[in-house]
């Protein structure tokens, strides 16, 4: 087996291990990494050494770094699967600048979801109806929605408690705590500075929904993490979604949100619309355009008398 102390030295540009009083620098963490890696299969070790040994070979440096990251990640956390090298969205400077400005610059965890949301908006903006978001926090995703909607004269309706999450129920598991994601309407106003096509409805979902009961929507973003507000949001907005309109669920594919996932799956089970699971962890449904003859059971069990392919009747 290759010696990992060699590997780490090469990763550090040939410098030897140095002791430092700071406990959290990469150099300090290296011995721990060495111990972890030394216990791995020889195949992984060999792959790492091969990549490092390529030196000035034909593979571009950036790609070799990617391969190295893949090999190291596979060693440390094999469940994570690297996708193809060279995805261009990671070089979309305009989008990266938006994210850097709005989000915590040390946390890129929702970059792919924000990017997906922004792209999906293109599918629906030609449709009739406004946009809505359930779960706004400081307005990061709302900003994307407002920016896309403004040229079309559409309003974005924003619903949040501004007291953070309510107390999770048993179905929600143990990840979330009451009060997580507290923000203020001023936070939202600051994120949405320069935009005026939005309305904010502070309050517990679904208390303020009745204020938009007469409207219809082309896009609804549900990002509330917990079962009950997810249920309330779908039940209210799905019947009001235009045909071809999209409902996007931010939390669906995450272990941390079992309750939100369960209520969404239950509500769409057996309906004409398919729940589409995205590799980002999001899920979406698009309101089906049927021939108008086939009755949709409707998300509320048909109480609205809605016909599939029509707007809310
Ligand atoms: C993950 S954050 C939303 C993040 C936001 N979409 C973004 O892109 O930054 C979840 C939000 O849902 C709100 N929320 C959760 N349950 C709620 C409820 N029952 N009523 C109102 N707001 C709720 C929280 O206050 C919190 O701001």
Helix/strand-derived class?
A: alpha/beta
The number of E-state strands comes to 7
**Bulk shape:** elongated
Question: What sequence of helices (H) and strands (E) makes up the elements?
Answer: HHHHHHEHEHEEHEHEE
Q: Which strand-content bin applies to the residues? A: 5-15%
Low-confidence stretches: 14-24, 290-295, 301-313
Please describe the biggest sheet, giving its number of strands, its sense, and whether it closes into a barrel: 7 strands, mixed
Distance between the termini: 70 Å
Could you say what the CATH topology of the largest domain is called? Answer: Rossmann fold
Bound ligand species = S-adenosylmethionine
Give the rounded overall mean pLDDT.
85
Q: In the CATH hierarchy, what is the architecture of the largest domain at level 2?
A: 3-Layer(aba) Sandwich
Number of helices: 10
Question: How helical, in percent, are the residues?
Answer: 25-40%
CATH superfamily of the largest domain: Vaccinia Virus protein VP39
């Amino acid at each position: 087996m290759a010696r990992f102390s060699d590997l780490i030295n090469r990763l550090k540009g040939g410098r030897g291990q140095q002791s430092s009083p700071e406990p959290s620098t990469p150099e300090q963490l290296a011995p721990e990494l060495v111990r972890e890696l030394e216990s791995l299969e020889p195949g992984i070790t060999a792959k790492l050494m091969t990549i490092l040994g390529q030196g000035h070979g034909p593979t571009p440096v950036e790609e070799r770094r990617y391969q190295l990251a893949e090999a190291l990640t596979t060693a440390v956390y094999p469940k994570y699967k690297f996708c193809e090298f060279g995805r261009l969205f990671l070089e979309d400077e305009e989008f990266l600048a938006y994210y850097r400005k709005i989000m915590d610059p040390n946390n890129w965890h929702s970059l792919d979801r924000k990017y997906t949301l922004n792209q999906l908006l293109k599918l629906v903006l030609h449709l009739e109806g406004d946009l809505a978001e359930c779960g706004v926090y400081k307005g990061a995703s709302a900003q994307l929605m407002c920016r896309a909607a403004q040229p079309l004269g559409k309003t974005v309706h924003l619903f949040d408690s501004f007291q953070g999450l309510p107390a999770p129920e048993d179905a929600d598991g143990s990840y979330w705590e009451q009060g997580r994601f507290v923000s203020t309407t001023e936070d939202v106003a600051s994120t949405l500075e320069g935009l005026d096509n939005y309305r904010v409805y502070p309050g517990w979902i679904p208390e303020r929904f009745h204020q938009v009961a007469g409207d219809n929507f082309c896009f609804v973003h549900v990002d509330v993490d917990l079962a009950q507000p997810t249920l309330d949001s779908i039940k209210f907005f799905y019947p009001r979604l235009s045909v071809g309109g999209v409902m996007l669920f931010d939390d669906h594919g995450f272990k941390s949100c079992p309750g939100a996932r369960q209520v969404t799956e239950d509500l769409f089970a057996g309906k004409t619309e398919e729940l589409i699971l995205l590799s980002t962890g999001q899920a979406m449904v698009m309101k089906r355009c049927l021939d108008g003859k086939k009755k949709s059971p409707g998300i509320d069990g048909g109480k609205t008398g809605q016909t599939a392919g029509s707007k809310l009747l």
